[in-house]
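Posting this for the archive.
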Amino acid sequence: MNILKKDFHFFIVTKKQIMIAIAAVLSVVTLTVCTQIAFAGNERKLPIYGVETDKKRIAISFDAAWGADDTPTLIDILKKYDVPATFFVVGAWVDKYPDCVRALSNAGHQVQNHSNTHPYLTSLPKTKMIDEINSCNEKIKAITGVAPTLLRPPYGDYDNVVIEAVEECGMKTIQWSVDSLDWKENATADSIYNRVVGKVQNGSIVLFHNDADHTPEALPRILETLKGEGYEFVFINDLIYKENYEIKPDGTQYKIESDG
């Protein structure tokens, strides 16, 4: 009898353990599913860093936030090599250098949005982000007659809310796939040249700055080399896809072929 009691007791405990284990597994599964649903509802949004294309097309861009001394020289170089460029300008820079904005537009380059005051946009509430975007757009349009359609966040700083704010303004968020690093103190014309030429590929978006010390020296050789390699220079607006596209985790935009 004692043995039977002992065995019976053992059976009851084992069943309880099984029930606890099942409950634990169900809890884990439920948590996992809820986590996946939450993640799916907060999918990471990405800006466009570059474009997947078979064509040898690239876009060069300049950020303008501080000085403007080299801007006329850059315009002359781009004209000499018949290269269109996209300039992302800050609203405060527009206020300070309206003649440069006008000169860029008159030279046939596209002037796009780099925020109004160059803040870390992720530190602002969405309403302030939209204010930054719209204020800069209005200043650019007042001079060029054309409203920007692209925004490059200052410092490359973005999150989902930034991209949502840009989208709500009817614009696209643009980064870069090739950074010239022309802003660094130890940059030289050779280092800028080697970095750009060594990294460019089909669909690249190249980042320069309008007031970097050695960019005017490096730019002619870069343009000559890339043209010699068969690259066509286009505006970012003409490089990117406007519809039926997705963006890879590395920021590369690619075309989705429609079934129809």
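Residues 50-255 form a domain with the TIM Barrel fold (CATH 3.20.20.370). Residues 1-41 have pLDDT under 50 and may be disordered.
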